[in-house]
Amino acid sequence: MSKVDGNTVDKAPEGLDEWVDYLAAKMCPLFDATQSAVNSLSEGAGKSVDLICAQLLLDPGAIATLLSLVNSKNKTRLSTEVSTLENAVMMIGILNSRQALKRLEIIPTPANTPALKNYVQTVVRAYHAGYQACEWAQARGDMVVKESFIAAFMCHVGEMMMQLYAFAC
């Protein structure tokens, strides 16, 4: 098994299907700054969900974890996909969100290995794309502009995961 810090794995995946399976089993880690924000979360802190999510939107690990958690719960015929972080935190709850995020590995900043540096660069590029999509959606008058941000930001999650874990193989 590999870790974010660059430990090696027993056998490198071969072919696209093996890489997809290998990366799908990995969790997207959190930045250490996000972990600090997560540690301060509590229901009695007087923070709104918007303020909480504003901090979490900067981290693909937080977005991927919370959206996959809420979208994997109790699928019924009439259920709809949750596509915003605010809705996910409201449906899961602040304390459950905090517990889910505390289980993730932490990426130290500044990045100190080539894999982490490439990951951070990819996250920055993806954030810029998300911000541009959000601005464009707002200019068009879309109802939920944060969906546009998340879609553009997380569009690069495969590349982010490859940057983290391909160097370990």
Query: Spatial order of the strands in the main sheet?
Result: 1-2
What's the SSE pattern? HEHHHHHEHHH
Number of separate strands:
2
What class, by secondary structure content? mainly alpha
Helicity range: 55-70%
Chain-averaged pLDDT: 83
Approximately what portion of the residues adopt beta-strand conformation? under 5%
Please give the count of helices: 9
Task: Describe the SSE topology.
Layout: H1 15-24, E1 30-31, H2 32-39, H3 49-56, H4 60-72, H5 85-92, H6 94-102, E2 106-107, H7 114-140, H8 145-154, H9 157-165
Parallel strand pairs: 1-2
Name its key features.
two-stranded parallel sheet, 60% helix
Descriptive report:
There is one protein chain. The chain folds into 2 domains: 27-105, no CATH class; 110-169, no CATH class. Helix content is 60%, strand content 2%. It has 9 helices and 2 strands; from the N terminus they run αβαααααβααα. Helix 7 (114-140) runs antiparallel to helix 8 (145-154). The mean pLDDT is 83.
